[in-house]
Amino acid sequence: MSKIIKCLSYNIHKGFSTSNRRYLLSEIRHAIRDADADLVFLQEVLGRHDKHENKHSHWPKESQFEFLADQIWPHYAYGKNASYQHGHHGNAILSKQAFSEWHNKDVSKWQFSQRGILHGVIADSIYVYCVHLGLFGLERNYQYKKLLQFIERSCPKGAPLIIAGDFNDWQGKLDKKLQSQLNISDVHHQHTGKLALSFPAILPIFPMDRMYTRGFSVLHAEVLNQGHWQRLSDHCALYSELTLD
Question: Which of 62, 99, 207, 218 is the most exposed place for a label (fewest CB within 10 A)?
Fold first, then answer.
């Protein structure tokens, strides 16, 4: 039987509640630990923020992605997207398997909206991409083209791949184009017949977050939107269980 690869994708809202009033990174760490994923794709992760560090007594000494990885995910990659006076944030991938390589691709269209695609390669030559696209349609179309170019250059044709993250594609305009151009499938649509509704977390009605694969069979897929998942971030987390074809 093929090994099951468990994946989680989550926009953690920089560790704060939807209202930004509560700092919940410790609770987020417990939640993603309970999911016990092999690969965790994170968006809006603070690599450093001096202002918050001085304000919150329980702010971790290490970066947020190192705090979340702890001893569960010994391997991680971080891509700095947005830089500002007090620090920076971006995407991160936590992995139980080592990366043979990883790097970050800047796909920002405008200076005020800095975005990136974090890419890595793990065992079995599986290519993984963590994505956070922009809020505006014109911006997303630009980044969609950059994503296609980036994957075509960095991933061998036909190689197994996983693309996960916050696409902000609430109308689904990029979905079919992505699947057609890259020969990929949305895991939640494949498993349930519809895209995952992941935003807002308290009452998810928009399909903002996605997880696409190529070269995998989908055993299970769900939106984590019950209990504490409703209050930890403004997004729900996506979870899937895959086997390599």
Answer: 62
